[in-house]
Amino acid sequence: MKSTAVQPLFQFLKPHFLLRPKVLLERISYAIKKPNSAFQLVNLPWGHKFRVNINEAVGREIYKQKVFDLAVTEIATRILSPGDQAVDVGANIGYMTSLFASRVGPTGRVHAFEPVPEIYSKLKVNVDFIDANRKKPFIKLHPFALGESISQGKIITSGYFEKNEGTAYIEPVKENQDGVVLIKPLSEVIDKNEVIKLMKVDVEGFELNVLKGAKSFLKSGKIIHIIYEDHEAETSGLKEYLTEFGYQVGTISYDFWKPVVDFSLQKTVDLTWESQNYIATLDRVGLEKMIERKGWRSVGL
């Protein structure tokens, strides 16, 4: 068992901080005295302004680190290039949407899906910051969920939702009810002939439904890389479903100098610090070449 006494100190021994002394000092300052207002503007490493709520888990980490899920951020940075198309499923307040937009540029496209109304409004605020840029990319916001078919779902939140808005999830319903959201398959939203360079899926257990709704894309090889979170990897069926379409799946983690993708699925992240993400790819050789170089391009190192 890890000592909880050393855990706070262990956080600071990560590349997030040791390679970025200014951010480390800012985090220490935050621990000593928090800002008076819950809502703060952050300058993300790629130049976009971003509004966060420091009383909420994701917003607080972005405020303190200026980056969230460093390894995922870095891998996405390396995968995407100007002109690419990216899809952010479960966009939350738009951190990955912002990153994707910065990478694909004015000739690229980003689709962001967020069905929770109160979160969607915050996503829109952050996308408006991106739209203020002179060379803005095409960003399409979708206030509904992706799933296996056209249907409806109920948003389920727990008492923890106020502390971490990313914990909301969708539960399908069979008949009309109050407070439901629309669910659509990806093929109803994006032309099935389009090539998606990267799709990120983080929908708190609804990932398999999302992927089943993208079956035509998976079958034709039109989604090259998929990054997804999986809390129940042994039973979720996500890896098995994706390998049916020729994807190779690896865990996402990192060492001090760069991100790591392990296709043996043995190397994982410290779950006391962050959630486990996976990447499914149709281009393993190309992906491994992308991540072999040391450095953290996403944060300018």
Task: Tell me the layout of helices and strands.
Layout: H1 7-11, H2 15-18, H3 21-32, E1 39-43, E2 49-53, H4 57-65, H5 70-79, E3 85-89, H6 95-104, E4 109-113, H7 117-131, E5 138-142, E6 145-146, E7 151-156, E8 169-173, E9 180-184, E10 196-201, H8 207-212, H9 215-220, E11 223-229, H10 238-243, E12 248-254, E13 259-262, E14 277-281, H11 284-291
Parallel strand pairs: 3-4, 3-10, 4-5, 6-9, 10-11
Antiparallel strand pairs: 1-2, 7-8, 7-9, 11-14, 12-13, 12-14
Q: What's the gyration radius in Å?
A: 19 Å
Average predicted confidence as pLDDT: 89
Q: Specify the CATH homologous superfamily.
A: Vaccinia Virus protein VP39
CATH topology: Rossmann fold
E-strand count:
14
Percent range for β-strand residues: 15-25%
C-alpha geometry: globular
How many helix segments? 11
Low-confidence stretches: 1-7
Main sheet specs: 8 strands, mixed
Q: Under the CATH scheme, which architecture would be assigned?
A: 3-Layer(aba) Sandwich
For the termini, the CA-CA separation is 33 Å
CATH class value: Alpha Beta
| H and E string | HHHEEHHEHEHEEEEEEHHEHEEEH
